[in-house]
UniProtKB/TrEMBL annotation:
Annotated gene: bdcA
Domain of life: Bacteria
PANTHER family: DEHYDROGENASE/REDUCTASE (SDR FAMILY) MEMBER 4, DEHYDROGENASE_REDUCTASE 4
Record protein name field: SDR family oxidoreductase
Transmembrane spans: none
SMART domains referenced in this protein's UniProt entry, alphabetically: PKS_KR (SM00822)
Family under the similarity heading: Belongs to the short-chain dehydrogenases/reductases (SDR) family.
SUPFAM superfamilies attached to this UniProt entry: NAD(P)-binding Rossmann-fold domains
Segments forming domain Ketoreductase: 7-182
Length: 237
């Protein structure tokens, strides 16, 4: 596979889980991939050695650091914003600082990264943000802050698609349901309650999401923009 030969790809949050599968996919298809991480240095360096990608530390909670990282990455053909965190629980009990940090990572960083990338992105460029089916559906309590952040990405993608469409740049959101990662392990405490509302009663794999991202980044998707792409085993059906 060499579908992304000669393409420059930046993945924000690529060291583990869904982000790591996206890094592997683009690297396997010949792209020059840079990915960021926040704290998993050893894991990130192992992934870089395995794939030939470049690992760089950049905290997505730090707006200026995110903007600088995108700027330093030069003209990008593809920006994928995957870094995201959860802050789950009773909103009456939640630490407001944790909620604000979640908003910085899950909302502010994708917006500023997308805008900065678009400054130098060539015609045909792709901006892909990892949202969540919780942007559409919240079947349990305790998800408000997280769901709010993922819904915000929908408005962002619709708006930026209008702003950058005339330059041939597409902006899309991929919305996974339960995917087996450190954030949501397939054998974790939430598995039964999640599987109960799904049509396909199991977690998906990070590679499933990477496949959708690769399609959106490829030539077949040049007419797809401002749209949400749900991959959730029917969680939101
Ligand atoms: P993981 O927690 O397994 O991995 C998160 C990745 O993002 C890691 O590479 C992590 O880096 C990076 N990251 C987290 N915070 C920051 C930060 N402040 N700055 C830079 N990088 C950061 O998560 P998943 O792979 O499960 O999730 C990836 C995305 O998919 C998220 O946006 C999540 O909301 C979304 N999603 C996940 C679902 C699931 O069921 N797993 C379902 C729906 C959406 P480091 O290793 O350094 O911590």
């Amino acid at each position: 596979m060499a579908g992304f030969q000669g393409k420059s790809v930046l993945v924000l949050g690529g060291s583990r889980g869904i982000g790591a599968a996206i890094v592997r996919r683009f690297a396997a298809e010949g792209a020059a991939v840079t990915f960021t991480y926040a704290s998993s240095r050893e894991v990130a360096e192992r992934l870089a050695a395995e794939t030939g990608a470049t690992a760089v530390v950049t905290d997505s909670a730090d707006r200026d650091a995110v903007i600088a990282r995108v700027r330093e990455s030069g003209p990008l053909d593809v920006l994928v914003v995957n870094a995201g965190v959860g802050a789950f629980g009773d909103p009456l009990e939640q630490d407001p600082d944790a909620v604000d940090r979640l908003i910085r990572i899950n909302v502010n960083a994708p917006y500023h990264a997308a805008v900065e990338a678009a400054r130098r992105m060539p015609e045909g460029g792709r901006i892909i943000v990892i949202g969540s089916v919780n942007g559409d559906r919240i079947p349990f309590p305790g998800l408000s802050a997280y769901a709010m952040s993922k819904s915000a990405l929908q408005g962002m993608a619709r708006g930026l698609a209008r702003d950058f469409g005339p330059r041939g740049i597409t902006v899309n959101v991929v919305q996974p349901g339960p995917i087996d990662t450190d954030l949501n392990p397939a054998d974790g405490p939430m598995k039964d309650i999640q599987h109960a509302v799904m049509a396909i009663k199991r977690h998906g794999r990070p590679e499933d999401v990477a496949g959708m991202v690769a399609w959106l980044a490829g030539p077949e998707a040049s007419f797809v923009t401002g749209a949400m792409h749900t991959i959730d085993g029917g969680f939101g059906a």
